[in-house]
Amino acid sequence: MSMTEQKELLQVHNLETTFFTDDGAIPAVDGITFSLREREILGIVGESGSGKSVTSLSIMGLIPSPPGKITKGEILFEGKDLTKLKEKEMREIRGNDIAMIFQEPMTSLNPLFTIGKQLNEAILLHNKGWSKKQATARAIEMMKLVGLPRAEQLIKDYPHQLSGGMRQRVMIAMALVCDPKVLIADEPTTALDVTIQAQILQLMRELNHRLNTAVMLITHDLGVVAETCERVVVMYGGQIVEEGPVSEIFKNPQHPYTKGLIQSIPDMRVKKDRLYSIPGSVPKPGSIEIGCRFAERCEFAFDRCTKENPPIYQTGEQHTSRCFLVEEKERELNV
Amino acid sequence: MSEPLLKVTGLKKYFPIRAGIFGKEVGQVKAVDDVSFEIRQGETLGIVGESGCGKSTTGRSLMRLIEPTEGEVFFEGKNVTKMSKEELRKARRDIQMVFQDPYASLNPRHNIQKILEEPLRVHGIGDAKERKEKVAKLLNIVGLSSYHAQRYPHQFSGGQRQRIGIARALMTNPKLIIADEPVSALDVSIQAQVLNLMKDLQEELKLTYIFIAHDLGVVRHISDRVGVMYLGKMVELANSEQLYEKPLHPYTQALLAAVPVPDPDFKRETELLKGDIPSPSNPPSGCTFHTRCPFKMDHCSKEIPMLVEVEPGHSVACHLYKDGLNNDNNFAKTEG
User: Fold this and answer.
1) What residue stretches are annotated with the ABC transporter domain (chain B) (predicted)?
2) Is the pLDDT reported for residue A2 higher than 50?
3) Over pLDDT 70: what percentage of chain A?
């Protein structure tokens, strides 16, 4: 694999998204830097409150404002900084270049219109001058692409007549009608049953391969990451704590949080008497001002962890970790 | 062997489908359709299945939170389905539930003291002082502190709320706890904490659990025996080891194969299931799984397979095993 040779399609630089609430300014995303490469599937993994969804909404320009606002940093896509675009320009990018699918397909579909009408609307919006007939033909083609059976009849159905898995396929079809370069999928399979989840993940891998769409997959499930992604970004408390190729992260996690997270998954293949569990709970966003966000739950924490903010260390060619332990280890090796 | 703590025979729950302005019954949803099983004192029975398989309805029917259509439930030899209202109220002291969503199952206007005391007041146990002591004691047991009693649900995190939900279930010193998806709303790191807590409590207090969940990994870690449900029927019931190492029913095999494995080098061997779960209001004839089954035979769409014990402790409802385990027709047998 030549992951290094792939061009960077989307670059997020020092992004900070703040929510201004009655309790003060809360940085939900706090200075993150990463990039999405051409044709890859990048996983963004984290628990609730880690900032993973806010990251994706920031990229799409969909942060509800007020109370939210991008307060720092830039998001570069094809030479343009998305954070500086006007709403009208952003609308051009959304759908045409960057598309998004969400967790619950039922809330993203309009219950009053048929599937066909909704797909047509998306197609006609982005292909000015097309006839309705052309649009319908394209809709049927897209539905076949995402593996929906009886597409010709299905376009006459309403969303409630479809199952959860079929609805998510419709959402994927809708996201792909304009052949976007980037697809952001925010927990696309969380609301689905396991057997259906497996189908949707397989579909996303196939489409990524066939259409060369780069995918940013946001999930809380490390199992989904292991099966679907090439690289992964681990988020905690609004920051990126570790980043690297999936194979390396699972075999050789560098950050204690990643380690703990991997160990606490109840793996179906082995029976453990006790599961490893990370003590405590996720801190409220913005509650920790100085020091490592994970320090109070970390079994390896030492003085420095609560007094200084750990920088990002390079631990491998493509592997980084935001933890002082990297420095400690190196020091030990040098002595 | 001693008498089972709970024995369920032929449990059915059909919900009517009504239509028209007069609410005429036009059909039935067979949410639970002829389910039988037993639980011994001190063990954990896991019930797994996808949405609409009837696992939650089963859990609720046992306590008659939903009145079963047919079938019998024996708790310590007494027939729960025949109990009068008063008898049932008393029996519910011994059977308690823990629910999925700790945000929805705790009254936001009551403080924790009041929430936890409620079961005691309902059952008329203890005076004010004793109740207060009991609340403090149980908060400690589930890993919280007695000063938490004065707080309100919104002041707690999801994991802490689920601990409160567990404490509430334990207030009446129950023998059996029915936990319906108790950890599925929690983050992975918190989920492990709650699972470990439930295991510890089981040992300390000699509890018996029915653990209903859709996550097969979670179920394996907590259960001694596991039942797999599909469209209202129990299709396989076995010791946890047997079920995960040697699943027999094609549905169980497919279900296990669909779980994402946290190992990038893992290669999947079994093919993915095609199609969707059929609607429970109009289930397929014969074996309800035949529409998706890779090993479907002619008579599968005609005859309903019975749950039969094919080896000690391992029952399966599938025509492939009609003549026992060691048959050439057992295509579905797993290798290795």
Assistant:
1) 6-256
2) no
3) 99
Residue among B188, B192, B264 minimizing CB distance to A220: B188
- Same domain, yes or no, for A173 and A184? no
B291: Cβ contacts below 8 Å, ≥ 6 apart: B275, B278, B284
Chain A positions touching B218 (Cβ under 8 A) are 266
Note whether A79 and A114 are same-domain residues: no
Domain boundary among A128, A150, A179: A179
Strand partners, B330: none
Cβ contacts of A193 within 8 Å, gap of 6 or more: A164, A165, B50, B51, B214, B277
Count interface pairs A-B at CB distance under 8 A: 129
Domains held by chain A: number? 2
Closest Cα in chain A to B240:
A271
User: Within a 10 A sphere around the Cβ of A18, how many other Cβ atoms?
Assistant: 23
Q: Which domain range does residue A30 map to?
A: 3-97+180-334
Q: Which residues of B touch A (CB under 8 A)?
A: 50-51, 157-160, 187-193, 195-196, 199, 214-218, 220-221, 240-241, 244, 254-266, 272-274, 276-277
Whether residue A75 sits in one domain with residue A175: no
Q: What is the pLDDT of residue A31?
A: 92
CATH number for the domain spanning A238: value is 3.40.50.300
Mean pLDDT of chain A: 89
* Predicted structure pTM score: 0.86
* A126 in the same domain as A16: no
Shortest distance between the Cα of B175 and any Cα of chain A, in A, equals 22
Domain assignments of chain B as residue spans, ordered by start: 6-94+174-321
Asked if A198's CB is within 8 angstroms of B196's CB, the reply is: no
For residue A166, the chain B residues in CB contact (below 8 A) are 276
Separation of alpha carbons A312 and A328, rounded Å: 14
Of A227, A246, A282, the CB nearest to B261: A227
Give the nearest partner residue to B187 out of A48, A198, A201, using CB atoms: A48
* Confidence tier at A236 by pLDDT (50, 70, 90): very high
Superfamily of domain B6-94+174-321: P-loop containing nucleotide triphosphate hydrolases (3.40.50.300)
Host H or E run for residue B123: none
The answer to whether B98 touches B169, Cβ cutoff 8 Å, is: yes
pLDDT in tens, A92-146: 898 789 999 988 777 888 899 999 999 999 888 888 888 999 999 999 988 888 8
For the stretch B5-49, pLDDT in tens is 999 999 999 998 888 888 888 888 889 999 999 999 999 999 999
User: Helix-strand-coil percent breakdown of chain B, rounded to 5?
Assistant: 35, 25, 45
Q: Are residues A76 and A135 in the same domain?
A: no
Same-domain pairing of A83 and A130: no
Buried b (16+ CB within 10 A) or exposed e, A36-65: bbebbbbbbbbbebbbbbbbbbbbbbebee
Residues A93 and A111 placed together within one structural domain of the fold: no
**How many residues in total does chain B contain?**
336
Model pLDDT, residue A332: 84
Pair A143, A275 in one domain: no
Taking the C-alpha atoms of residue B329 and residue B115, their distance in angstroms, rounded to an integer, is 56
Q: Rounded to a whole number, what is the distance in Å from the CA of A203 to chain B's nearest CA? A: 12
Q: What percent of chain B has pLDDT over 90?
A: 62
Per-residue model confidence (pLDDT) at position A177: 85
- Give the 3-state secondary structure of residue B57: helix
